[in-house]
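FORM 7B: Structural annotation worksheet

SECTION A. Query
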Amino acid sequence: MIFGMMNNPRTPLLSEIARAARLGFDFLDLTIEAPAAAPESTDWGAVHAALLDHNLRVVAHAAPYLPIANPSPWVRQAALDELRRTLDIAGQLGAPFCTTHFVGWPPYLTEALGYEVYRQAYTLLLPHGSSQGVQVTLENSPDNRHQLKYFREIFSRLPDLKLTFDIGHGNIQTARSMTREYLFALADRLCHVHLSDNDGTHDGHLPFGAPRQGSIDLKHELQMLRQFRFDGTLTLEIFGEERWLLASRDRLQEELSLLA
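SECTION B. Predicted structure
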């Protein structure tokens, strides 16, 4: 596995690239979102040059606020246009894949029509990404109500869609970790992993061991990744002070060494 960090979209992107390199990460999980990494106002040529100068790999992350399941078809179309622009940027930067987000569908739609919303959207996005050399992935949300069932159905309709699995999201409002269930169903689609801690009630993006209770079982999560032969890119999605991000990377490397 190789480890990356995510840029803070409120901080100038070039300084975030320099920070990721200074901290010794293998790659930057570049979230393309406002205000400091907005598609329309960022000099992406300069960003590409900075990544090369710092010898830093990159993966792409679409803005989580794009409403691809909005009740209005005009809003959905605008969101898809923005996602296509994001895939263009990912291709320009040399990112091998771009993470997009599962946001459900309007409550008035039947489940079958909800699946169709995603099938239609990603039938447009997947070939657009492929034309840029970018695989498109779908990330699980923190809302675990029936979500694995939804993912099975969506992925069955879209054979080229890949999975970004967020382990933190898979431990929110659940009786147990959802990692094994997702990987059992979709390990052949797994492209990328996000990892952080939380207290089981909301997506805290905390360092490992920070919650007083409900913390993820890091050893178990890593065992699941090993069991399903994942050896790709893993983003430590831990926000706040740098020392907690670095301490979490040290803990992660220690636990992996014990599993070797």
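SECTION C. Observations
The chain has one domain: 2-259. The domain at 2-259 is CATH 3.20.20.150 (TIM Barrel).

SECTION D. Sign-off
Analyst initials: ____
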